[in-house]
């Protein structure tokens, strides 16, 4: 028998324009979220990509202990509250509510960082003077026994939609998310295959960048790394674009107890792609707790490929990244020519 979820009876039926901050899990689930709301007739508004000004605004309303990525997220929230979000046509649009889900876990050994579970409360309390209207739902399969589908069903009921329409929106959203992930994984496979078909002497250096999507693909955080690698003539492969299910299964060759799902996927992708790349760049936003443990373990236990670990913090930002990338690439090129030998 399906579990019944108590709803707050269409308390958000008047919400027609939904603002989604361009940070954190936006980089993982934006296709799912956008499809769900648009199928239910809502207009999605997203603010501009991150800049130093975004970070400065978020930093001003955050406690020091928050990681750089969380402070960036707060900056995106402020941009939406200030009416600086854009609708799909690119027009400035105020929002009726902010969509900020509470995401704890998808089951055993599929946890997210605790900040994702606390995010609605973090925003509400940090910006209490602005009285932000927050549209949320919970995903917590271990404690509250609420799955993603059940959380979305509750959200649809709060929006005043009929159950059959909500189910159709969920089906479209999950299908769209799966298709988007498959397209990324297929493009990655095709790129690697095309590189390996080249004569060995003509192949570019292939660098695997392993980082949370909101670090790897945020222009303020990871943009400098990608730019520096490409400027050095390297081809960039992202660990988060590898097939997630296969990466998760592969991660158990590394650890039977690692609790965080995204870190598991990144580790699994590193293992799966290890022999197809020339070097690995691990990126983290200071002071990320899961990354501090996982990245250190990877550097200690994954051998046979040079690894560069980069930590971006609030003080230095990406200063010095270009120099470290250039040195790393020089080492890889020297190794390609037989300058270093390793097991």
From TrEMBL:
Q: Which Gene3D superfamilies match?
A: 3.40.50.11900
Superkingdom, natural source = Bacteria
What are the transmembrane regions?
none
Range of residues in the leader sequence: none
Residue ranges annotated for the DUF2229 domain, each copy included: 17-240
Identify this protein by name.
Acyl-CoA dehydratase activase-related protein
What is the originating organism of this protein?
Answer: Collinsella ihumii
Lineage of the organism: Bacteria, Bacillati, Actinomycetota, Coriobacteriia, Coriobacteriales
